[in-house]
């Protein structure tokens, strides 16, 4: 007997939709890293994390959906700090000689 997969469901919250937007931005960043400029790609990754931090801060507990992992302050702090550090590193790491 062959089992069929359950039908796909759309996200039920705004946070779920934003989660997929952040995921798409992350994929774009990784593609940019692989194809061309690692600095620009890492900046995309950091921007996605900052976007998710702002969304987690603004949205309520239920509306945060898949962005909600821990307590709000912890989620916002971790996402914002990681995004800011990635952007800072991409902007400040010097080029290697011969590049």
TrEMBL record:
Keyword Transmembrane helix: yes
Record-linked Pfam families: DUF3017 (PF11222)
Organism superkingdom: Bacteria
InterPro entries: DUF3017
Keywords: Membrane, Transmembrane, Transmembrane helix
Membrane-traversing stretches: 16-36, 42-62, 74-93
Entry protein name: DUF3017 domain-containing protein
Species annotation: Nocardioides mangrovicus
């Amino acid at each position: 007997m062959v089992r069929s997969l359950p039908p796909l469901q759309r996200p039920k919250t705004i946070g779920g939709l934003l989660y997929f937007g952040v995921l798409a931005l992350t994929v774009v960043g990784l593609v940019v890293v692989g194809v061309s400029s690692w600095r620009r790609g890492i900046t995309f990754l950091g921007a996605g994390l900052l976007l998710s931090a702002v969304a987690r801060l603004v949205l309520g507990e239920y509306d945060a959906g898949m962005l909600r992992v821990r307590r709000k302050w912890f989620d916002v702090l971790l996402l914002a700090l990681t995004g800011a550090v990635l952007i800072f590193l991409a902007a400040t790491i010097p080029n290697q000689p011969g590049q």
